[in-house]
Structure formats: C-alpha cells, structure tokens
UniProtKB/TrEMBL annotation:
Ranges where the Sulfatase N-terminal domain occurs: 30-334
Protein name from the UniProt record: N-sulfoglucosamine sulfohydrolase
Family: Belongs to the sulfatase family.
Single Gene Ontology MF annotation: N-sulfoglucosamine sulfohydrolase activity
Keywords on record: Glycoprotein, Hydrolase, Signal
GO biological process: determination of adult lifespan; glycosaminoglycan catabolic process; heparan sulfate proteoglycan catabolic process; motor behavior
SUPFAM superfamilies linked to this entry: Alkaline phosphatase-like (SSF53649)
Lineage, top ranks: Eukaryota, Metazoa, Chordata, Craniata, Vertebrata
InterPro entries, sorted: Alkaline_phosphatase_core_sf, Sulfatase_CS, Sulfatase_N
Gene3D superfamilies (UniProt xref): Alkaline Phosphatase, subunit A
Keyword Secreted: no
Signal peptide (UniProt feature, chain positions): 1-22
Amino acid sequence: MPLPRRGWVIVALLLFGGICGAKKDPSRSRNVLLIVADDGGFESGVYNNTAIDTPNLDALAQRSLIFRNAFTSVSSCSPSRASILTGLPQHQNGMYGLHQDVHHFNSFDSVRSLSLLLSQAGIRTGIIGKKHVGPAAVYPFDFAYTEENSSVLQVGRNITRIKMLVRKFMQSQDERPFFLYVAFHDPHRCGHSQPQYGAFCEKFGNGETGMGWIPDWKPQHYSPEKVQVPFFVQDTPAARADLAAQYTTIGRMDQGIGLVLEELHSAGFLNSTLVIYTSDNGIPFPSGRTNLYWSGTAEPLLISSPEHPHRWGQVSSAYASLLDVTPTILDWFSVPYPSYSLFGKRTVSLTGKSLLPALVMEPPWATVFASQSLHEVTMHYPMRAVQRGPLRFIHNLLNRTAFPIDQDFYVSPTFQDLLNRTQAGQPTHWNKTLHSYYYRERWELYDHTTDPTESHNLASDPHYAQAVEELRGLLLKWQWETDDPWVCVPDGVLEDKPSPQCRPLHNEL
Ligand SMILES: *[C@@H]1O[C@H](CO)[C@@H](O)[C@H](O)[C@H]1NC(C)=O
Ligand SMILES: *[C@@H]1O[C@H](CO)[C@@H](O)[C@H](O)[C@H]1NC(C)=O
Ligand SMILES: *[C@@H]1O[C@H](CO)[C@@H](O)[C@H](O)[C@H]1NC(C)=O
Ligand SMILES: *[C@@H]1O[C@H](CO)[C@@H](O)[C@H](O)[C@H]1NC(C)=O
Ligand SMILES: *[C@@H]1O[C@H](CO)[C@@H](O)[C@H](O)[C@H]1NC(C)=O
Ligand SMILES: *[C@@H]1O[C@H](CO)[C@@H](O)[C@H](O)[C@H]1NC(C)=O
Ligand SMILES: *[C@@H]1O[C@H](CO)[C@@H](O)[C@H](O)[C@H]1NC(C)=O
C-alpha cells in the first residue's frame, strides 16, 4: 500500500535528519512516548487489514519493529493498564478489576509503578487521556489531563485537544528527559456511556448537528459490506455495521497518532524518543475483551527506536507480553528495578523482560502468561493462561458458573444480534453458541499450528497429555512466583503458614 504523504514526510525527516528547534541535546537525553489504544486490535494496514485506512500507524510501523506475537497479560482495561505500568500481573499488583465507580479496584499502596520509579530517577512524567488506575500515590504524573480532571471525550477522543496538550507538554522549559503516556479513549465502545454519539462514539466531533466539531479530524466512513469480519465475530449485517463504526473511530485515533508524532517532531524529540504503540486488551466483540483466548489477548505492538534503525519495518515473531513494557522502559532509561516486598513477603521481581534486544536481533522468546480475575465487580471469573509457541493453555478456575458479560458489551449491536438470533432460533453465523460461550471446560488447550481459530479443545486429547502436564506446571510455577492469591482455587485453600501451600477442600472439583 502506498504510504500517504504525511507518512513519507515523517520517514524522510528521520532518515535525512530534520531535527529543528531542539531545546535539549538529543545525545544527552532519551525520552519515551507510550501510546495506548483503548480496546484496539489489528484493524490497521500494518497488520494486513486491507479494508481500513490507517496511514499514520502504517508510517510509524515503517520505523518500528512490528510484533506479531504480542499479548496483554489481562483482557480488561484497568487491570491491563496497571500491569503495563507496573510490570506486575493484576493478581500481584492488586488491580483485580475496573477502577471506576462501584468497581473500585486499586493497586496495592506499596507497589512501585513505572511513573513513580521514573520520577524518582529524575524523569519528567506526563499522561494525556484515559488513566483508569489508582491510587494516585502509586501512579503519580507531573503533568496530567485525564478523566480525573477533564472530560474523557476531550482528552481521549478529541484529537485537536490531544494535539494541543502534547504541545503544551513538549513546550515545557523543564530540562529533564520525559516519559509521556498518551492514552486514547478511541476506539472504545460508546453505547453504554454516550449512546448519542453512536456505538463507538464515531459521530463525536464529526461536524453534524449536535455532534460538535474536531477541527483536525477528517472522518473516514466505511461501508459494512467492505469490513473484514474477524473469525470470532458472527458475519451478519448488525456485526458488520458495528465493525464499520469501529473503523471510523480507529481512523480518528490514527489521525490523532499522526498529530502526536508531528508534535514530537516539531519539538525536536523524534530522534531521542522511544515510541511504543499498543492496546490494553482485545476488541469488544465475542471472545475478545474479558477473554483469555487469542482473540482477547493478542495486541498490536510497534516499537520505534531512533537508535535502532536496522530492524525498522520488520515483523518479529518473538513473543512479547505487555508485562514487558515496564522492564523495556526502565532499560531504555537505565533505571534499575528496586528491591522491595509487598505485605512483608518475598522480594518483588518482574517476570517480564526488556524488549530492547529484539531491536537488534530476532530473539527466541516463545512464552507469555495471562491472568484475569474480574472486569466489573460482579464479573468474578478467574482464568490463568500460558501460551508457549503454538500451544495456548487456559485454566478456567470456576468454569461451572456462566462466563459473565459486561454492561458495555451487552448493549452492543453485535451482542444484541447474537441474543436475538439465538432466542428466535435463527442462524447466528457465529462460530460458537451462546451456551458454549457461557459454559466452558475447566481446561482448554489449542494448537495454533493446526487450529489458528482455537476451535478444537485438545486438553483431554491423549496425544497432548504430556504438553498439558508441562504447561500446567509452567503456569502454576508462574502463579507461585507472582504470589497469586488464586493459586489454590478451586479445590484448595491457600495457607501461608508454616510455608505457603494449598490445603485440600475435598469439594469434588
Ligand atoms: C539520530 O540518532 C542516531 C543515533 O543516535 C544518529 O546516528 C543520527 O545521526 C541522529 N540523526 C539526527 C538527524 O540527529
Ligand atoms: C502481512 O503479510 C505479509 C505477507 O503475507 C507478511 O509478510 C507480514 O509478516 C504480515 N504482517 C504482519 C504484521 O503479520
Ligand atoms: C488537571 O491537572 C493538571 C495537573 O496535573 C493541571 O495542570 C490541569 O490544569 C488540570 N486540568 C483541569 C481541567 O483541571
Ligand atoms: C475539540 O477541541 C477543540 C480545541 O479545544 C475545540 O475547539 C472543539 O470544540 C472540540 N470538539 C468537540 C467535539 O468537543
Ligand atoms: C467444567 O469443567 C469440568 C471439567 O473439565 C467439566 O466436567 C464440566 O462439564 C465443565 N463445565 C461446567 C459447566 O461444569
Ligand atoms: C434485538 O431485538 C430487539 C427487540 O426485538 C430489537 O429492539 C433490537 O433492535 C434487536 N437488535 C439487533 C441488533 O438485532
Ligand atoms: C470457525 O471459523 C473458522 C474460519 O472462519 C474455521 O476454520 C473454524 O473451523 C470454525 N470453528 C468452528 C467451531 O466452527
């Protein structure tokens, strides 16, 4: 696909040296720009979706290493953001579910987050957009325009406003290196919170009556017949219209990313800043967000280092986890992880790794872990998972209860369509049934070499008995290492004394 003009300009400026107006000596400072999408997936040119136009992500990819096997450790907003910003899985940092309102989850007070460690190391920190984590003392930022003191539509979806805030951050006379976290609220659903703007807020700021106007946004419209329906979504008119709305919202974020990168460039920091683009969890469709399937945890991940042009534009197959983001950024700034413990237990250590070596040479990384406990406060459905190479192994700790559905997804046209069709006994054109979606086996094993859509559970297939044994051991080992309070669920009770162990319940599970 030909790169749009702006894309080429950015690439050319980098290649041929367009540092203008730099206030700092780039050789003395190294900065980080972390861009996170909200429920974003692989709807972009760089990830080979040819139905959507994302010129700015595609241009960023031209000077990034593109990960095709990157995964979040948890498929829910606050838990994922807390894991990104601490390097600790949700069960270890304490953000078991959503942060806002009645859900009220928070990380433990003594967790040392990335923004805390960086600010202690003399790095200036900023956040623009959706924060959705707490408490404030664990996640301090010097510069903060978030839902805590602004409208999330303005700081998370109004790309003109976001551009102006990035400019304000960059114009500071502060000489310290910076870590700027731009957390778009696009392409999150909207039907549950602001339905007047459409299922994905795709009308917010489009200039139509009552929608307001975002001066920098040129809305792209997609016809439902043209979208690419992922294998885990039903191919029906309702789902296609839903996806078309999602594409328009992704287009707004893509244009916003272009504006943010232009600000970085015109402030003179493009050549000293590590740029990371990813998303928090799977797309808000069935088997996506709140699920630990591939479709719920696989994420886009672009890492652009001005110092490592050798692998720009290449696709890496190495397995990366969003638990690696904190170690990567600490490594970039040469800030060590401190020695401390939580609740007087063992020293906390990061189980993720720095991704910077991948910018030099393809690494052999092949394993990632995942851990989900809740989304909304009522949605206790703990799952733990490991993917090693092509094998994804999931433990549904409490599989006898129905898999819960969140409020936001429930009112979506896609889910309503599944409910309506199922109730009416019409064909759903979906790969699963509501019954199979709600009631899962306790153990699930999928082999991506033969089954990329995760359609055949091999957990009780004798040919895979050895693999199941190994993956189960690997997963349990990680749970113990990361002090997982759920490590004995469902058939035991965790007792810490004399030494941590599971005591049997004899409950027939
Ligand atoms: C950008 O940084 C790289 C690596 O530090 C350096 O080789 C290159 O000359 C720099 N380019 C400009 C335009 O400053
Ligand atoms: C996109 O498709 C091309 C051609 O099949 C492939 O080489 C490339 O790795 C794919 N990109 C990603 C990010 O998977
Ligand atoms: C939000 O908080 C920041 C301090 O981090 C402050 O500078 C800014 O003025 C606040 N914005 C609003 C709209 O209150
Ligand atoms: C977006 O932000 C700009 C700049 O603050 C403002 O002029 C515009 O009205 C905003 N658009 C909407 C839809 O709120
Ligand atoms: C839960 O898992 C167990 C063990 O695999 C299985 O027997 C049961 O049918 C599953 N589902 C429910 C709803 O109990
Ligand atoms: C589902 O059925 C309800 C009630 O008949 C209807 O109002 C709604 O539009 C339908 N939604 C979809 C997506 O089919
Ligand atoms: C789901 O769809 C994919 C292709 O879209 C197909 O390969 C797979 O077998 C389907 N699975 C089920 C359970 O129907």
